[in-house]
Write a structure and sequence with these properties.
Layout lengths: L2 E4 L1 H15 L3 H20 L5 E2 L8 E5 L2 E8 L2 E9 L4 H4 L3
Parallel strand pairs: 1-5
Antiparallel strand pairs: 2-3, 3-4, 4-5
Helix pairs in contact: 1-2
Length: 97
């Protein structure tokens, strides 16, 4: 099984996503986080399927999951998730916060 490493800020992004969705529907929040986690597993097994976004970091890739964008680095045995941001946000501004 491929490894998924979450940077601390990516973990905070996940918590924020859950909090946002759970404010109106906790069950939907749980369901979406499970879906997102499953997609991260798929990315870890196929790390080169995302679009290259090297303007932020060398080798950085991006993959959309519903209304969110996962930014990650391919590893020899999986991925390192850098950020998970809403697609509606200004990525250039929010990426480094």
């Amino acid at each position: 099984m491929a490894n998924i490493i979450l940077r601390q800020i990516a973990e905070a992004d996940l918590d924020g996503i859950w909090d946002y969705i759970a404010a109106s529907n906790p069950d939907r929040a749980d369901s979406f986080i499970r879906k997102l986690t499953n997609k991260l597993g798929m990315l870890a097994n196929n790390p080169l399927i995302g679009v290259q976004r090297e303007e932020y970091f060398p080798n950085l890739r991006m993959f959309p999951i519903e209304r969110y964008l996962v930014f990650y680095l391919p590893l020899n045995d999986g991925i390192e998730v850098i950020r998970i941001l809403p697609a509606s946000r200004d990525i250039d501004v929010d990426f480094f916060q």
